[in-house]
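Predict the 3D structure for this chain.
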Amino acid sequence: MYDPTPKRLPAAVLALLVLLALVISAAAAPAALTSFTARKVVLDSSGKVLTEEKIAMAGEKIRAESLRGDMVMIFRHDLGLLWVLAPEKKIYVAIPLDQRTWDRETRGATEGERIRVLGREKVNGFSCTRKEVTGTRTAMGRAAGRTIWSSDRLPMILRSRTGQGVTTELRDIRGTEPAKDMFELPRGYRKVGDNMGLFLMYMRGAATGPPTPIH
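Done. Predicted structure below.
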């Protein structure tokens, strides 16, 4: 006689189905990008573009170049160095790159800062976690805070917004492998120091300094 009672599947079959579902889900999820290029745009509180630069990242290396090409910053976390170049004058400075600066550039937060998750949001096609970051240092008696948007698919935050409403975000993100020489010092450049003060003096023509070795 027919028994209408649903039959329970064996535990082994259930486990296999669950495993299969997880595998399919993982395969369908977009892969994380370890290398990419993008535009970094800074906007004021009204949405007006203030500055824009080209970004390239590959592992522990970041290159940021102004649209006019008059300044290039190369972050080398693997070497603990930040190179700032002026292509027109063929000069550069080499500044020590500490972990705090690298974390601020990539994670949007540094050790000691307080982080509170606010929710989930999509930004430029990426599913992001929106977080409130409160610094330990105070300005005018108050802790400085900002909001950041980060995605598990990117090694750099997608968007950050200050308490004054200034927003920095990545746009036109492409998962491509940048050329390796983009993260190296070009030949023929002269080192003029190890701090931004000297670099800016040379940029303004206020200093020439003694001859230094050409890279």
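The domain at 35-204 is CATH 2.50.20.10 (outer membrane lipoprotein receptor (LolB), chain A).
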